[in-house]
Structures are given as structure tokens and as C-alpha cells.
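Exercise 7b. C-alpha cells:
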């Protein structure tokens, strides 16, 4: 008896056993058993293989957002490693790379309808590394470079407070936010990617800024800004989500033309992109608190009569 006959005999025996198993299942499956039995009567293993293949495809779609989230975590870890090697420029760019992964994982999860509590918790842990520990460590290393702006202990304390505020901000976000996209239209407190973007962009733009002011004063300002960003993250100030508010709506063609001209300008002078990035993140982080202070403190004190009926100008 050759190998082919043995293989054929084994297959026939296994097929016979499989048919008996499916026949026994007929007593318990009732309404669904007939469909399973007809499909699996003659080719049980082929049907089983096809079923497992579909299941694997479904699992692969579910883990896709988690893989993208791990890309964010990978960028955060590399940013810390590069900062430890005093490569602060590369570390700052890696923080921005983590932001791209952070935007993509949420979009992919909502498009594939695979949003879950597991994905939210994994995203928060990744954000803690990429937008909490990495920018705090980056600011600390840059501030303590010669000439140091403050004692090392003060820089460590401010960086630690920033990390603590990031953890509190992310924990509050997980508790108060649902998976629905409508719950992401606004943030309570500055988002951790926005705070990290301010620190990373200021570090990237340090050459342009220190050409106007001494490096010592810039580092002192960065130390104060790092502390202020931590306070803004745990504040009750309302921030809009630019990615959802502006990208989901249709925009006129003039916006696209302006964006193309901006890209061409960046190609001519790449440093313009860094300056624009710094101005954009700083404006987003600090204009909303100023607007809140104006509405709550200054605007109510202005008398309505003074606005409606201003005093006439006296001609000289």
C-alpha cells in the first residue's frame, strides 16, 4: 500500500467521523443544523477552513486600529530615546509623528466600526508616553542645556507636574467621553497632543526665537509655558476639536488653492512650516483661555449703554 492509498484511506475515515459528528449535532441545532449539515456533509474540512479564514479577516480588521495606536507608542518611546541622546530636533519631530498615528487610529476605528473600551485605554496609555512623558522630558533636557535656565531640581519638578496633569487629563477624558464622534467635538481642558505640540514646536523653532531674545530668557519662558500647559490640561476651559470641526465639513475650492500655495511656499522655504506650526499650536493653546477670561471677567463689566450709546467725539 503506497502513500496515496494510505492518505485516501485516512481522509475517508476522517470524513466518515466528521459526518457522524455533524449528524449528532442535528439533534441540538434545530433550525440552523440543516444549513450546517448540507454545507459540511461532503467537504467538512474545506468548509471549516473557509469559516476560519473569514474569522481571521474579521479579527485582522479589528486589530488594525490597535496596530496604528502602537505606532503612536513607538514614536513616543523613540522620542524619549532620542532626547536621552541629546537629539532634541529628531525627538520633537517624532512627537509630531505620534500625533499623525493618534489621528489615524480614531478615524480607522470609527470607519471600520471597531471602537471599543480596549482601544480607548490603549490609546490613552500611548498618549501618556507620546504626549506626556516625551514632551516633558524634552522640555527638561532643553531647559537644562548650557546656559541652564534654572536649577535641575526645578526643571524636574515642572516636568513631573506636566506628566501628572497629562495623566489626570487622559483619565478624565476616558471617564467622560463616549465612542460616538459627536462627543469628540469639544474638549474639556487642553488636549494632551495640543500641549505636546506647543513644547515640540517651540523646541524646533528655538533657533529663530533665540535670534531675537537671549537663549536664557527663552528657556525661562519655556519652563513657565510647560507649567501653564499642565494647568490648562486639567482646567475646565472648552477647546474645539479642529480635526472633526473643520475637516468633516465641505470647504470651498479657495481653501484648497490656498493650501496648495502654502505647500509650495514650504517647498521654497521649509523653515516657514516650523514657524507656522509654532504659531498654530501656541494660538490654539492660549487663545481659548484668553477668550474665556474675556467673556467671564472683562466683558460683563463693560456697561451696555457705553456700547450702544457711545459718547460723541468733542471737536477741537
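Sequence design result:
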Amino acid at each position: 500500500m503506497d502513500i496515496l492509498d494510505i492518505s485516501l484511506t485516512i481522509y475517508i475515515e476522517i470524513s466518515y467521523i466528521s459526518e457522524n459528528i455533524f449528524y449528532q449535532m442535528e439533534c441540538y441545532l434545530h433550525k440552523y443544523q440543516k444549513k450546517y449539515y448540507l454545507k459540511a456533509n461532503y467537504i467538512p474540512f474545506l468548509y471549516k477552513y473557509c469559516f476560519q479564514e473569514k474569522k481571521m479577516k474579521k479579527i485582522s480588521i479589528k486589530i488594525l486600529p490597535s496596530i496604528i495606536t502602537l505606532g503612536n507608542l513607538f514614536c513616543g518611546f523613540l522620542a524619549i530615546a532620542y532626547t536621552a541622546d541629546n537629539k532634541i530636533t529628531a525627538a520633537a519631530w517624532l512627537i509630531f509623528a505620534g500625533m499623525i498615528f493618534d489621528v489615524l487610529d480614531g478615524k480607522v476605528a470609527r470607519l471600520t466600526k471597531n471602537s471599543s473600551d480596549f482601544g480607548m485605554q490603549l490609546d490613552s496609555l500611548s498618549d501618556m508616553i507620546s504626549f506626556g512623558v516625551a514632551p516633558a522630558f524634552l522640555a527638561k533636557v532643553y531647559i537644562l542645556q548650557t546656559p541652564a535656565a534654572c536649577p535641575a531640581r526645578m526643571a524636574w519638578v515642572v516636568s513631573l507636574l506636566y506628566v501628572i496633569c497629562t495623566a489626570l487629563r487622559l483619565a478624565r477624558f476616558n471617564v467622560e467621553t463616549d465612542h460616538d464622534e459627536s462627543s469628540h467635538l469639544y474638549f474639556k481642558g487642553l488636549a494632551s497632543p495640543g500641549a505636546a505640540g506647543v513644547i515640540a514646536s517651540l523646541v524646533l523653532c528655538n533657533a529663530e526665537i533665540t535670534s531675537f531674545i537671549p537663549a536664557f530668557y527663552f528657556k525661562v519662558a519655556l519652563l513657565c509655558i510647560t507649567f501653564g500647559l499642565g494647568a490648562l490640561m486639567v482646567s475646565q476651559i472648552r477647546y474645539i476639536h479642529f480635526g472633526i470641526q473643520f475637516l468633516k465639513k465641505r470647504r470651498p475650492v479657495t481653501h484648497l488653492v490656498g493650501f496648495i500655495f502654502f505647500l509650495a511656499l514650504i517647498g521654497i522655504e521649509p523653515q516657514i512650516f516650523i514657524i507656522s506650526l509654532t504659531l498654530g499650536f501656541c494660538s490654539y493653546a492660549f487663545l481659548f483661555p484668553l477668550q474665556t477670561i474675556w467673556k467671564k471677567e472683562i466683558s460683563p463689566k463693560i456697561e451696555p449703554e457705553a456700547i450702544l450709546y457711545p459718547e460723541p467725539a468733542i471737536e477741537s
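Instructor comment: The longest strand covers residues 186-188. The chain is about 75% helix and 0% strand.
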